[in-house]
């Protein structure tokens, strides 16, 4: 942490979450959505976002992971599938980061096959690089387009630690 670079300050991230909340409100305020936090990384973004969504919604969580506290992704592993029914409902998936996109695309696929009417996605960060699983895939709501480094803070870990960092940090040399 002492050697990490701060890429985005708490004030900057906070303002971005406010803007994303306004964008989501404009689209989903009368849709009666179910909002799923993708654990673990989505926890802080979802928490700070949800109190700014001033319309009726249900909230739940799911847990899918590719990284398992490592800095390289592998196969998607479901730790907890959604328990709230979202058949014929609008679903909003909230996650911390869209990196290669495998995780979010697999979750969308799952929700659509399980009967969701519309699946919307919100990510705090969209990492900019040429390794996207599907370059045409974009999240509907994005807080910050971040540089291509391994980042932590605001829910994202470095080897399991520092999800609690109040800012977006990049590991030195990564
Ligand atoms: O776009 P991708 O390359 O698929 O990566 C993005 C995913 O990676 C992280 O989850 P991780 O698997 O690290 O689980 P965690 O949230 O429990 O740390 C993050 O929270 C996203 O869900
Ligand atoms: N913590 C963390 N998790 C990720 N999952 C995919 N990319 C990243 C990243 O840059 N940082």
Automatic annotation (TrEMBL):
Cited CDD domains: PRTases_typeI (cd06223)
Record keywords, A-Z: Glycosyltransferase, Transferase
Phosphoribosyltransferase domain ranges (all copies): 16-158
Catalytic activity line of the entry: IMP + diphosphate = hypoxanthine + 5-phospho-alpha-D-ribose 1-diphosphate; GMP + diphosphate = guanine + 5-phospho-alpha-D-ribose 1-diphosphate
Any one GO molecular function term: magnesium ion binding
GO CC annotation, single: cytosol
GO biological process: GMP salvage; guanine salvage; hypoxanthine metabolic process; IMP salvage
UniProt protein name: Hypoxanthine phosphoribosyltransferase
Source species of the chain: Thiopseudomonas denitrificans
Lineage, top ranks: Bacteria, Pseudomonadati, Pseudomonadota, Gammaproteobacteria, Pseudomonadales
């Amino acid at each position: 942490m002492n050697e990490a670079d701060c890429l985005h300050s708490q004030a900057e991230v906070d303002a971005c979450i406010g803007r994303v909340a306004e964008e989501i409100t404009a689209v989903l305020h009368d849709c009666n959505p179910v909002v799923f936090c993708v654990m673990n990384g989505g926890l802080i973004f979802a928490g700070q976002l949800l109190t700014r969504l001033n319309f009726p919604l249900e909230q739940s969580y799911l847990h899918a992971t590719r990284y398992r506290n490592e800095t390289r992704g592998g196969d998607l592993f479901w730790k907890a599938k959604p328990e709230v029914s979202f058949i014929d409902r609008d679903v909003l998936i909230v996650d911390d980061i869209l990196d290669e996109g495998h995780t979010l695309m697999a979750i969308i696929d799952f929700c659509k096959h399980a009967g969701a009417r519309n699946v919307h996605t919100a990510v705090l960060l969209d990492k900019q690089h040429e390794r996207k699983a599907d370059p045409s895939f974009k999240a509907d709501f994005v807080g910050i387009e971040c540089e291509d480094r391994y980042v932590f803070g605001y829910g994202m870990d470095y080897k399991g630690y520092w999800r609690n960092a109040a800012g977006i940090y990049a590991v030195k040399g990564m």
